[in-house]
């Protein structure tokens, strides 16, 4: 079922706990370098951090958590690092499914994936199917994902359907994450302040939070700080402060 709640078409409901958090998990390589370890050691620890953040979001009642694991541009990395990341993803799909089932977490994987090994795509399909009936947290892993790829595949789907004119809802409902509301809170660890071709369409009105913490060091406390910052924001969606309900005004 496609869900269409657009921040540009209507002002969304604001909850104290963000409904949807999207994270660029950055800084694994630098975390490892600081310890004189190979970059891939940082990726391993990054998986541990991701597991902890999934648990924390589940406990907090976040409805959707989206983690950027591998971008369409990350194929440009050295072949051995790319292979390691693919292997880590494959093994994580196998080892984490039980935990997802125990915690009522539904898994989605979004991205192009044409260059993934057939075995990896099979594992993804199995993990998605096994968790399909879960209705707690919806966990999305963006892998071989690019925001431009997503917008283009949606536009191409519309062309294939014979569209000659595109409305916002037509495109939004064909994006690969049409099942989720737009992110309320975007977090990027690792100190860079950029979007790196993540959810370029859906981040239109998300609150952006950047932290210098490297991803393997990002824990439940760091997540709490990000959410505290989010709660301090005045989400105006184009309106003036005076137009907001009292409870949503800040400062
Ligand atoms: C993020 O960490 C993980 C992936 C992109 C797969 P990086 O590997 O980008 O770590 P830094 O930015 O080099 O420290
Ligand atoms: C963004 O991180 C992608 C992921 C975290 C998967 P990068 O480390 O690849 O981003 P850039 O290259 O610094 O923009
Ligand atoms: Mg990086």
Outline the structure in words:
This protein has helices at about 30-35, 40-60, 80-100, 120-130, 145-160, 170, 220-230; strands at about 20-25, 65-70, 105-110, 140-145, 185-190, 205-210. The chain has about 250 residues and is of the alpha/beta class. It has one domain: Undecaprenyl pyrophosphate synthetase, CATH 3.40.1180. Strand 3 (about 105-110), helix 4 and strand 4 form a beta-alpha-beta unit. It contains seven helices and six strands, in the order βααβαβαβααββα. The termini are far apart. It has a six-stranded parallel β-sheet with strand order 3-4-2-1-5-6, with helices on both faces. It is globular, with a radius of gyration of 18 Å. The site of one 3-methylbut-3-enyl trihydrogen diphosphate (IPE) has 11 residues, from strand 2.
Q: What is the H-and-E element order?
A: EHHEHEHEHHEEH
- What is the terminal-to-terminal distance? 39 Å
Report the sheet-strand fraction. 5-15%
- The number of distinct helices, counting runs of at least 4 residues, comes to 7
Keywords:
6 strands, binds magnesium ion, Undecaprenyl pyrophosphate synthetase, 251 residues, 6-stranded parallel sheet, binds 3-methylbut-3-enyl trihydrogen diphosphate, alpha/beta
